[in-house]
């Protein structure tokens, strides 16, 4: 060991023969402490420089090929790791990076080969959901990508059962919030009972009195009609589609009644008041009938309050505002735009309406005023 020259020993301790070589600067060390000491003394990162110069005879070697392969796979791993990190943090960078589902991506940050772009960044399942929502008469306002409400939305189109699955946010009278998915044909009362199951004592009393459970009132998914129509004696076809002409009448005739001592209200988003604007609902209405003709922000929000609509209207300083009171005291954006268009057509005070004046006669008068002084001069 003592006969070896210093050039053949560890460049740090000069005691042991070297075992390791630094990928960055090719410094040879004998152990991990010497390697750490070398990085500290030389301020070396220990990472191979992919742009380091190589002679021509060094390019066609196995070591050079391995270096290039490791460099390319390292870039791929970094991109995948960054994509997973962005997905976990709720940041959508797919469209900017070219990995959006509509641009040939599969939704997890990887690009599929042989697929063209163009799709608007909307997946096939989302297109089916939006078509069904549009046919049901519901307007869905999308929240920005990555927001908590957008990430919490589990609403989807279930192609196997041909029905919509809605994510419903339930807000109780004490402010407690709960989220649960339910089918579009479920009644409001049935969906509420699944979020807050009945106590065992209530179930026993219901069985003794012979009342039918709420689930028996739910229609089949193929019919997709309002449960209130099941009270008719006429049989309903199982494969009949939605009938938009009869649904609004059924929705209007259903009056909000208490269910387990609570009243149900649909929240109206994007209003100009600080108070939540509520729409009274009947517990016998289906989710589709309750949402028809209304707007939801990503998914519906339903309030379960102990106060009836009359009680909310009678309060002097109400915490909630009914939709009819809101429309009576506040102007909707559509009405505002129409009034603005009418105001544009109206003349300001002191102006004269020249709609009935002949343009040719006005032009002749102006020409006479211009040319007569020149002729006199």
TrEMBL record:
Residues 335-345 have a biased composition (Acidic residues). Interacts with FBL, SNU13, NOP58, NUFIP1, RUVBL1, RUVBL2 and TAF9. Interacts (via HIT-type zinc finger) with the RUVBL1/RUVBL2 complex in the presence of ADP. GO terms for molecular function: zinc ion binding. Keywords: Isopeptide bond, Metal-binding, Phosphoprotein, Ribosome biogenesis, Ubl conjugation, Zinc, Zinc-finger. GO terms for cellular component: nucleus; pre-snoRNP complex. Belongs to the BCD1 family. Residues 227-239, 247-256 have a biased composition (Polar residues). SUPFAM superfamilies: HIT/MYND zinc finger-like. Residues 93-128, 186-258, 326-355 are annotated as: Disordered. Required for box C/D snoRNAs accumulation involved in snoRNA processing, snoRNA transport to the nucleolus and ribosome biogenesis. Residues 10-44 form the HIT-type domain. This is Box C/D snoRNA protein 1. Residues 190-203 have a biased composition (Basic and acidic residues). It holds the Pfam family zf-HIT. It comes from the Eukaryota. GO terms for biological process: box C/D snoRNP assembly; maturation of LSU-rRNA from tricistronic rRNA transcript (SSU-rRNA, 5.8S rRNA, LSU-rRNA); snoRNA localization.
């Amino acid at each position: 060991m003592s006969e070896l020259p210093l050039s053949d020993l560890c460049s740090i301790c000069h005691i042991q023969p070297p075992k390791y070589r630094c990928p960055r600067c090719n410094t040879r060390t004998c152990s991990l402490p010497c390697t750490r000491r070398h990085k500290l003394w030389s301020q070396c990162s220990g990472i191979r420089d992919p742009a380091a110069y190589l002679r021509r005879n060094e390019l066609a070697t196995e070591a050079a090929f391995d270096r290039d392969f490791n460099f390319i796979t390292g870039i791929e791993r970094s991109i995948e790791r960054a994509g997973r990190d962005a997905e976990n943090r709720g940041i959508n960078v797919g469209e900017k990076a070219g990995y959006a589902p509509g641009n040939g991506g599969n939704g997890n940050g990887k690009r599929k080969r042989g697929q063209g772009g163009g799709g608007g960044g909307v997946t096939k399942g989302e297109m089916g959901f939006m078509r069904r929502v549009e046919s049901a008469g519901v307007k869905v306002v999308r929240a920005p990508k990555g927001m908590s409400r957008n990430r919490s939305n589990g609403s989807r189109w279930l192609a196997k059962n041909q029905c919509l699955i809605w994510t419903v946010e339930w807000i109780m009278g004490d402010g407690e919030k709960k989220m649960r998915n339910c089918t579009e044909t479920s009644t409001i009362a049935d969906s509420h009972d699944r979020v807050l199951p009945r106590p065992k004592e209530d179930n026993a009393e219901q069985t003794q009195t012979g009342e039918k459970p709420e689930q028996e009132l739910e229609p089949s998914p193929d019919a997709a009609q309002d449960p209130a129509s099941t009270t008719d004696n006429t049989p309903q076809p199982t494969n009949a589609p939605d009938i938009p002409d009869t649904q609004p009448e059924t929705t209007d005739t259903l009056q909000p009644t208490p269910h387990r001592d609570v009243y149900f209200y649909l929240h109206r988003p994007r209003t100009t008041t600080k108070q939540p604007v509520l729409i009274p609902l009947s517990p016998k209405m289906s989710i589709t009938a309750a949402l028809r003709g209304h707007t939801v922000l990503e998914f519906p929000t339903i309030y379960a309050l102990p106060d009836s609509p009359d009680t909310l209207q009678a309060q002097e300083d109400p915490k909630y505002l009914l939709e009819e009171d809101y429309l009576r005291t506040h102007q909707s954006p559509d009405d505002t735009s129409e009034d603005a268009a009418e105001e544009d057509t109206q003349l300001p005070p002191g102006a004269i309406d020249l709609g009935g004046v002949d343009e040719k006669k006005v032009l002749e008068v102006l020409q006479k005023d211009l040319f007569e002084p020149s002729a006199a001069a």
